[in-house]
Design brief:
Number of helices: 7
Strand order of the largest sheet: 1-2-3-4-5-7-6
Structural class: alpha+beta
């Protein structure tokens, strides 16, 4: 596992609606070097306002469903105690997401309502991730929590924020005797490997007739006995 010295400037907590603007900033700054983001939103630099508008809508939907999603942030005292990293955990995978189409109707005959997106890639990504989840993790049903999103602002990386957000989910899953699952991009895969997630296989996301493609890895942290918290004692020793 990657080691970061204790950083007393960082605090992990649950996000609130008041954090929404800061969350959007983390997403806009933290995801663009991830291939998943480039694949779906290649025109974000041309239309930054459009990109932010729909990011705000996406995370607003997560925050409005606290029985399904755990939206956590890490704040930093050297960022005025505002968010520098985020995670979105699906705590009830059997419960359907309640929300809109984020500006890209599922029907390809309908035009996208946003300009920052490659609509074909967006639809293929949405379809491919759903299929990949069902293929690799569907068998676990309610016996898992799933990490959908993880990002850290570039200026605050290598301080342990992403690791702590992951460890929150691993510890929570161990308390509930659940599996911990994630569909990882090439960027995220390295972190999950350091945290001892196992590689369950990979799949490609590629639209028909399109040369551009995206590889995604299905990764899992195995279920452990109730009450065993694999990282909490380590964090305690390190002063987290």
């Amino acid at each position: 596992m990657g080691y970061y010295p204790p950083d007393g400037r960082l605090v992990l907590r649950a996000a609130t609606p008041e954090d929404l603007e800061d969350i959007a900033t983390v997403a806009q700054e933290g995801f663009p070097d991830d291939p998943e983001f480039n694949y779906r939103f290649p025109y974000r630099d041309e239309y930054p306002g459009d990109n932010r508008k729909w990011i705000l809508q996406e995370y607003k939907e997560y925050l409005e469903q606290p029985d399904k999603y755990a939206v956590n942030i890490v704040t930093a005292s050297d960022n005025d105690d505002r968010a520098v990293a985020l995670s979105v955990w699906d705590m009830s995978v059997s419960v359907a997401h309640q929300g809109g189409d984020l500006g890209v109707p599922d029907n390809p005959k309908q035009e996208a309502q946003r300009n920052d997106v490659n609509a074909t890639h967006f639809r293929e990504f949405k379809k491919g991730m759903g299929k990949g989840f069902d293929t690799y993790f569907g068998k676990y049903g309610k016996g898992q929590i799933h990490l959908w999103l993880l990002a850290t602002r570039p200026d605050f990386r290598c301080r342990g924020a992403g690791t702590r957000l992951c460890q929150w989910g691993i510890d929570r899953a161990s308390q509930l005797s659940l599996h911990t699952t994630v569909l990882a991009s090439p960027m995220g895969k390295r972190l999950y490997e350091e945290l001892s997630f196992s590689d369950c296989g990979s799949f490609m996301i590629q639209a028909d007739g399109d040369e551009e493609k995206l590889e995604i890895w299905a990764m899992m942290y195995p279920k452990v006995g109730r009450g065993w918290e694999p990282f909490s004692w380590i964090l305690g020793l390190l002063g987290f």
